[in-house]
Amino acid sequence: MNDLLKQRGVIAAALTPWDAHGNVDLAAFDAQIDWIAAQSPLAIGVAGVEVQEYHLLESDQRIGLVRRAIERVGDVPVIAGVSTPLASRSADMAKQMADVGATAVLSLSAPKPWAAPSTSDEFVRWFTQLADESPLPIVVYSNPRTGTEPSVSSLAELAAHEKIAALKETSRDMTKVLNLCLELAEPGLAGVYTNMESLLATIHLGGHGAMVPAPGLPAAQHILAAHAAGDDDEARRWQSFFAAFPSHWMRLGLGPAVKAGMGVLGVDVGTPGHTFDALTAIETSEMAELFARWGLVG
Predict the structure, then answer these.
(1) Fewest CB atoms within 10 Å of the CB: 45, 91, 191, 260?
(2) What is the pLDDT of residue 145?
(3) This model's pTM is above 0.90
(4) Which residues fall within 8 angstroms of residue 258, CB to CB, at 6 or more apart?
(5) If phi over 0 gives left and psi between -120 and 50 gives alpha, with beta otherwise, what is residue 206?
(6) Cis peptide before 246 (omega within 30 of 0)
(7) How far, rounded to the nearest angstrom, does the alpha carbon of residue 30 sit from its chain's CA centroid?
(8) Are 150 and 180 in contact (CB under 8 A)?
């Protein structure tokens, strides 16, 4: 798995569907996993990051979704989310994810309990403990919106750990991504993945790809295919899709936008969990027009 996450590709983040009673909609989850697997991603991430609404899931629900995904996808690797505030708790969950067959685990960098941002040293200690105790390779998810903005040197220090397979860097700071790619140019160090908006630039800078919410997967795969074929104009054209999606529909944040995107693609994953709002019918219709113009539906 360490070698797999040093290849060029896209990791797809599966969304968590809810029914009208606030329970996980397992049939909708299954249909989404089948759809994602058919798009041939590098791997599928389950229940790990904010857009997957992992905060709303109990530990046994997260483990159950990972097990369910593994049972459906065959040879497609599944990266299990183990994000918690405590490295020891995340490590315990990583052991349970190993038992159900996950091939790697992913964790967000955790802010301090009193909401202050962690220092780079604290960030390194947190993930070093997780890596030391986890039986599975680690994807380090660095997101400044969670209250932690690690330095390039701290990310590079973690990348030298034998259990750190990849870094998901979400600052959208391309100078930082460049320096990170330069730091990790030595063979054997962790793969570098960013966001859908930064995918093509990341590849050009020497990174490996992006981790994207499920509805971004088709466009991301078009970018990779065009780049591999040497068609830079077509790669840039497809990258421009992400200038509109999801940014034009971020009124309520990323979650509602990408859940609407999955519905537009014909895979109903419902609306955001519990008491949170969805996009309006008008907004969803406008999104559907965009997807149709790009030939992604209809």
Answers:
(1) 91
(2) 78
(3) yes
(4) 15, 51, 213, 214, 215, 216, 246
(5) left
(6) yes
(7) 18
(8) no
